[in-house]
Task: inverse folding
């Protein structure tokens, strides 16, 4: 999608601070972190929302989970704990309509989403 900011990041048109990358997934530092560790994990293929994962793209979910495990280890929060969040659609808090997961950690997280 030509106007999608995350697609532009995947293509290298917009720079990011990469944390993790494989053939299907890119993870990078959030530019407005809500915790000491705040990484955005995205599929390289454009999928607008969690509701748009269909049977053909069903391994996107497992690829996101595997990437989250790798990011947690790279950021050294796998033992102390972290939070993963996927916002879906406007009322769910989704701002960029390219499926993405936030991984937050590095401090004790309270009941709020930040």
Result:
């Amino acid at each position: 999608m030509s106007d999608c900011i995350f697609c532009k990041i995947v293509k290298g048109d917009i720079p990011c601070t990469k944390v993790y990358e494989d053939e299907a997934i890119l993870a990078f530092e959030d530019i407005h972190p809500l915790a000491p560790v705040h990484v955005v994990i995205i599929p390289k293929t454009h999928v607008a929302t969690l509701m748009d994962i269909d049977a053909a793209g069903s391994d996107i979910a497992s690829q996101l989970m595997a990437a989250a495990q790798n990011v947690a280890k790279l950021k050294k929060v796998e033992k102390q704990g972290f939070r993963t969040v996927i916002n879906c659609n406007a009322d769910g808090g989704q701002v960029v309509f390219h499926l993405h997961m936030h991984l937050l950690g590095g401090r004790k997280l309270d009941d709020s989403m930040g």
Q: What stands out?
A: The two ends are 29 Å apart (CA to CA).
